[in-house]
Amino acid sequence: MKLFDVYPLYNVTPEKGEGVYVYDEKGQKYLDLYGGHAVISIGHAHPTYVERITEQVNKLGFYSNAIQNPLQVELAEKLGRLSNCEEYNLFLCNSGAEANENALKLASFHTNKKRVIAFKNAFHGRTSAAVAATDNGAINAPINNQHSVTTFLPFNQLHSLDYELAFGDVCAVIIEPIQGVGGLDEPTTEFLQGVQQLCKKYNVVLILDEIQSGYGRSGKFFAFQHHDIEPDIITVAKGMGNGFPIGGVLIHPRFEAKYGMLGTTFGGNHLACAAALAVLEVIENEKLIDNVNEISAYFIEKAKKIKSLQKLKGRGLMLGMEFEQNVSEIRKELIYEKKIFTGGSSNKNLLRILPPLTIGKHHIDTFLNSLSDVLKNQNL
């Protein structure tokens, strides 16, 4: 049997990770400024993370949600405290797409409506309703078009949103406070606050997709917290487990839970909870959100000196460097010649920077010096 060939692959085979580095099968070291799509939040093979998972798997790796699992309660309490979202309730699942799927389903249950408002260049996942709320026709199969009740609007146009919500058939507005795959675009504070007001006016559920921007990556625990709003539902995943599959839906207490309305086999299993608890412990004990803000300011100050850089986008350690030309050759030279991982996006001129939150200033220096060499080599 062969693998189903759906991923364009770089010719690199990581075998080991440590901190902000990964090592291939030949022992070659690479600086990881992408973290596998912002998944690696506390660094590769962090000792606390390894210890917690090892200890848990030696006791019990899995049992279903038909029994008591105190680790879920501990995770909910710790996540609520560190994120300042203690009044919310937590539903645990396995991925970002699944988190958004359940968020949309919950909104539809709550309002008894089905139309969704999403935004241009949005990416919310690849499962049924989540992909229908994703602004990419290439990954929406005909079967997904049964969810043809998604309307895509531009950021920062409240009059367009008001017009659509006035029809009275919308269950949810789902929005990324910083777009990931879409290219690091952000709505303004004025717009997000206006969205919240309109959702309240029309009894529509406001879902903040923090799959990539959450867990401190923006410089606050959640990126929406830069804008002084209170979502009805918050979805999380990528950095939540530092590589162990886990996702979550934070649900405002105004939503009434009923047995069977949401469910999952593997979500919130013992190993996943151990991984997620380790991540929160490290974020708190090592003051990683403070580090995000310090390193981000340093990065931005240094990056602005690159003459060919057109625009610097994003917040914290969720950053995009936009150039006049396609960055694919820049990324190739960075990975093959400079041994540095970076990311791309639907904006082909944007280099995406999503390192572990443990990164230091000397790593930023290494990257920016290497990037300057690459730009010079390519006459940019």
From TrEMBL:
Return one GO MF term.
transaminase activity
Q: Which PANTHER family does the record match to this protein?
A: ACETYLORNITHINE AMINOTRANSFERASE, MITOCHONDRIAL, AMINOTRANSFERASE CLASS III
Q: Which UniProt keywords apply?
A: Aminotransferase, Pyridoxal phosphate, Transferase
Q: What family, per the record?
A: Belongs to the class-III pyridoxal-phosphate-dependent aminotransferase family.
**Claim: Transferase is one of the keywords in the record:** yes
**Protein name in the entry:** Ornithine/acetylornithine aminotransferase
Cofactors (names): pyridoxal 5'-phosphate
Gene3D superfamilies registered for this protein in UniProt:
Aspartate Aminotransferase, domain 1 (3.90.1150.10), Type I PLP-dependent aspartate aminotransferase-like (Major domain) (3.40.640.10)
List the SUPFAM superfamilies: PLP-dependent transferases (SSF53383)
Q: Could you tell me which Pfam families the record lists for this protein?
A: Aminotran_3
Check the record and name the InterPro entries matching this protein.
Aminotrans_3, Aminotrans_3_PPA_site, Class-III_PLP-dep_AT, PyrdxlP-dep_Trfase, PyrdxlP-dep_Trfase_major, PyrdxlP-dep_Trfase_small
The answer to keyword Disulfide bond applying to this record is no
